[in-house]
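Student: Hello, beginner here. Can you help me understand the protein record under this note? Any guidance would be welcome.
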Amino acid sequence: MFKLIQCAENTYYLECYCNTGVYDLGNGEVILIDSCDHKKSVKDLDKALEERGWRVRTIINTHCHVDHIMGNKFFKEKYGCKIYSSRVQSALTEEPAVELNFYFNGIFPRFNNEAFFEMIKAPCEIFSDDVLPEGFETMLLQGHCIDHLAVKTPDDVWFVGDCVLAEETFNSYKIPFFGNINKSIETAELLPSLLKGKLFVPSHSRPCEDIAPLAKINAGRLSSLKDYFYNICENKSLEEILAFADGDLELHLNEDKFAKIGYTVRAIMQALIEDGKIAARLEESRLVYKKL
């Protein structure tokens, strides 16, 4: 069973694969920051809320990825709560089929089906500052996805979503999901100066009082991935690059991994193009990358 952990006076989080924030408004209502990653964590969170006599008033989604919005429809139907995210993310949160096809470039992941979409889709409105009570703070952090939203509670606790990932995630996945590599590196490098707080709760890492070490790890690992793919990309197509990395890094690609990792690798190649280090050229009906 996933447990609800108190980390400040009125701030809690459900410790699960995707840490979900809970802020007690003091009137029997709570604000959720994301809504869990799985049906089991949704059930465990709702049980914890019921035990405390709490109702969900508002959900703020940091971004639209499926592991952050699994409970949206459940909590909306049970409590009639409002759901918000940033402008781009709200549209994709409301229509997860669009998000999945966008990120996976037409390669359908195993859960890409209408029944799954109907289970999680719920109306999501565009976030504005007046949505949250006084004392909250938000910031858009680019890189993992467009207009990723970080939220700070009045207890000075930041929920930073996926703008930085645990080192264990890099070690396990080798090439975790990031949509814009250069912006992700920039965000990681600036994060300690952008966000000031007493505690930081990433979605997929342990809470920490100092975000700087984790941010440094992310900037370094993403920069290393850029160097790696620069070194192997000469005169290769994306499929050839992925095939080489699969064997070299032991990625154990399947259809789902090919789609997810392929998206990040395309983002890495785009970052190298932005850096002026490579170019993409069409040769004999193949898009190949060339070092400059």
Remarks:
- Residues 15 and 246 are 32 Å apart (CA to CA).
